[in-house]
Amino acid sequence: MTKRKSFLIAMSGGSGSGKSTLAIALLKRLGAWPLVAPSTEPLDAIRLIDATGALFRAPEVTFHAREIGEEAFGYNVPNAVLTAALEQLAASSTAAAERFFRLG
User: What is the pLDDT of residues 1-21, one digit of tens each?
Assistant: First the structure.
C-alpha cells in the first residue's frame, strides 16, 4: 500500500454556487481549515487527454473552474499538513475536555 502525499477536497455545486463541500465545511467547523488553507493548491483546471493510442484520437480538452463560476474544482491539501492540523486540534480538545471534567 502506498502512502498518499496529498488529499483532494473537491468542491460541490457549480454554476457559481461558491459552496464548499461538506469536507471543507467540516474542516472549518473543527477549526482546521485556517490551519491547512495556506498550504493548499487549487485545482483550477482539468485537462482530458485521449491516451487510448488509437489512430484517430479525440482532441485534448481543458476545463477551467472559472467557466462555471468557481474559483477551483477543489483543493489539494498535503496529507502531512492535514494530519498535523487535526492532531493539533485533537490534542487541544482533549486537554480542554480533561480540564473541564477535572473542574466539574
Answer: 556 676 666 654 544 455 567
Closest of 79, 94, 91, 77 to residue 34, by C-alpha: 77
Number of neighbours of residue 14 by Cβ within 10 angstroms: 12
Residues of the domain holding 52: 6-103
| Dihedral of alpha carbons 65, 70, 72, 74, sign | negative
Does residue 19 belong to any structural domain of this protein?
A: yes
- Write down the residue that cell numbers 487541544 correspond to: 92
| Whether the model pTM is above 0.85 | no
Q: What are phi and psi of 80, to 5 degrees?
A: -65, -40
